[in-house]
Structures are given as structure tokens and as C-alpha cells.
Design goal:
Blueprint: H1 2-60, E1 76-81, H2 91-97, E2 107-112, H3 114-122, E3 127-131, H4 139-154, E4 160-168, E5 174-182, H5 186-190, H6 195-200, H7 210-284
Parallel strand pairs: 1-2, 1-4, 2-3
Antiparallel strand pairs: 4-5
Helix pairs in contact: 1-7, 4-7
Length: 286
């Protein structure tokens, strides 16, 4: 019995230490989550307005742009935006599962995030580049990634560029998403006939010309869209980690309660047995 109670006490102590760690990680993730969510949500109005201006310029421009060229897809580039660390639930698993949709023989990858790079290396995929991002990336840092993707597309090395990232919806909901970024979908440039698209194209005059404005705006649009996807991925990461660590802390507390109850039962049984042994010995001695 003594050995059994000692083992239970050791397990309770170990789980308490684990709960302290997960609680600390939960608090750190919550602090980072608020900043990441604010950054992701703050950039969306700018991205929406840029889309409207881009449609306006596209409707007035009479020339096409190389970033709008639609080609037969013989080679596709997939930018995978994942996390550097784990302990964020099924976030990376759900995202990397989406990569099964691509044909390995026709697909090359660019990784932004250690988890995605490790998965691509483990599955022996074709990796062109591997970029590292800070916990709170700046626009200039993500621009290096988007510039590389644009160069690959313009050089003809790939015919299509798709981004795999996790779209932030709320603290409890993050959606793995595949989005084509090059060539830019026609609806994003020329509008789709909806009232919103028509409103975006009215009343603007461009100097020196709509074609030159379009040529300068399109690369910046791609740069910012990828930056916004990185922000969404970071907000999703910290939200998922906070929820996962809270769940781990709650499970640890419940396990401690169960083990404490078991410890009390074993201890009570041991005390009862000792009392019975003393009483039996006293009766035997007369």
C-alpha cells in the first residue's frame, strides 16, 4: 500500500508541474493572441479598399499585365504558411492535409514556417525555398517571400501560384484555405458585375494612365495579400495554442482531482487494514 500511495503522490506532483507549464503557456499565448488578432483585423479594410481600387483601374485599363496572364498549368508553385512551433492543436495537421490535393509531379513548394518545411522534407516534396518569419512579421519581411513568388511566375518557371494558409475567423475557429494569388483572378481585377464592383469603378481619373497605375499597383497588391495571409496565420496560431493550452490545463486539473480521490481511497483502505490487524492481534493475545 505504501508503495502504491507513493506512486500516486509522485504522479500528482508531476501533473501539477505540467499544469503550471501549460497555464503559463496559455497566458503567454493569450497575450500574443490579442496583438496578432488586432494586426490581422486591422489590415482587412485596407485590403478590401485596395481590391476596389484595383478593380477600378482594371476596368479602365486597355492593356493586360504579365501578372494577369493565364497559362496552361504545367508547373504550380504552392506557398505553405505554417507555424514554427507546435502545441497548437490540429492547426498544422488540418492545413498540411490540404496539400494532398496537389499532384507531386507538377507541384513545387515554398515554405514559410518550420512545421511546413519539416513536413515537405519528410514527404520528399520539391522545395524551392524555405523562409523564416518572426513571431510578429513586418511587411518588409513578407515582401521577400511574395517577391520570390512573383519572380518565379514572371520567369515562366511556374504557371500558377497558390497560397496555403490558415484563415482567422475567431478565437475558436480557424479555417485551412487554398487561394490562387497568381495569376490574379479576373474578378479581383475587372470586377464581377456586382453593384460593389460597379461602384468601385466610377469617378476615378488616373495619371499618367490607368495602365501605368495598374502596373505599379498589381505587385503591391500581391505583396500585401500575402502579408495579410501571414497575419491571419499568426492570429490563428496563437488562438489555437491558447485554446489547446487551456484545454490541457483543465484536463490536468481534472486528472489531479481523480488521482487525489484515488489516493484518499487507497490511504483509507490502508488505515482500515492496519486497524483491523491491531484489533485482531489484541483479540488473539486475550
Amino acid at each position: 500500500m505504501a508503495a502504491n500511495t507513493r506512486d500516486i503522490r509522485r504522479r500528482i506532483k508531476s501533473i501539477k508541474n505540467t499544469a503550471q507549464i501549460t497555464k503559463a503557456m496559455q497566458m503567454v499565448a493569450a497575450a500574443k493572441m490579442r496583438k496578432a488578432q488586432q494586426a490581422a483585423l486591422a489590415g482587412r479594410p485596407y485590403a478590401d479598399l485596395m481590391s476596389k481600387v484595383l478593380r477600378s483601374v482594371g476596368e479602365q485599363s486597355e492593356q493586360t499585365h504579365p501578372l494577369l496572364e493565364v497559362r496552361a498549368v504545367s508547373r504550380e508553385l504552392v506557398l505553405v504558411i505554417s507555424t514554427d512551433k507546435g502545441l497548437c492543436g490540429a492547426l498544422n495537421t488540418n492545413l498540411l492535409r490540404e496539400l494532398n490535393r496537389f499532384e507531386p509531379a507538377k507541384t513545387t513548394y515554398v515554405a514559410a514556417g518550420r512545421k511546413g518545411a519539416q513536413y515537405l522534407a519528410r514527404t520528399k516534396q520539391s522545395i524551392l525555398a524555405d523562409f523564416e518569419l518572426k513571431d510578429a512579421p513586418k511587411f518588409a519581411e513578407t515582401k521577400v517571400i511574395s517577391k520570390y513568388c512573383i519572380e518565379q511566375f514572371l520567369a515562366g518557371a511556374v504557371d500558377k501560384v497558390t497560397v496555403a494558409y490558415t484563415h482567422f475567423v475567431s478565437t475558436l475557429t480557424q479555417t485551412p484555405t487554398l487561394r490562387t494569388i497568381l495569376p490574379l483572378p479576373p474578378a479581383e481585377v475587372a470586377g464581377d458585375g456586382t453593384p460593389a464592383a460597379e461602384d468601385a469603378g466610377g469617378g476615378y481619373l488616373y495619371e499618367p494612365s490607368a495602365e501605368e497605375v495598374l502596373g505599379g499597383l498589381l505587385p503591391h497588391y500581391v505583396h500585401f495579400q500575402i502579408y495579410q495571409m501571414v497575419l491571419d496565420s499568426r492570429a490563428s496560431e496563437h488562438s489555437a495554442r491558447m485554446v489547446a493550452m487551456k484545454s490541457a490545463t483543465d484536463n490536468a486539473k481534472q486528472l489531479i482531482k481523480d488521482l487525489t480521490l484515488e489516493y484518499n481511497k487507497v490511504r483509507q483502505a490502508a488505515i482500515t487494514t492496519e486497524i483491523l490487524e491491531i484489533a485482531t492481534a489484541q483479540m488473539a493475545m486475550g
